[in-house]
């Protein structure tokens, strides 16, 4: 499943001066799934 956050995570990863990542959102919208999926694909 493609989500909008995937593109935002990629931009965050590519920044040279990135800050720690904090993901806030409503319950049960796929935060954990998105982060785990991004972690697997963005080595």
Give a quick set of tags describing it.
51% helix; single chain; mainly alpha; 0% strand; 43 residues
Write structural notes for this entry:
The chain is an all-alpha fold and 43 residues long. It has two helices and no strands. It has helices at residues 4-14, 31-41. The longest helix has 11 residues, at 4-14. It is globular, with a radius of gyration of 11 Å. The mean pLDDT is 92.
Q: Would you summarize the structure shown here?
A:
This protein is mostly helical.
Beta strand count: 0
What fraction of residues sit in β-strands? Answer: under 5%
- Terminus-to-terminus distance: 19 Å
Largest sheet: none
Mean pLDDT metric:
92
The low-confidence runs, each spanning 5 or more residues with pLDDT under 50, are none
**SSE-based structural type:** mainly alpha
Q: How does the overall form come out from the CA principal axes?
A: globular
Number of helices: 2
What is the gyration radius calculated from CA atoms?
11 Å
Helix content: 40-55%
In sequence order, what are the helices and strands, one letter per element? HH
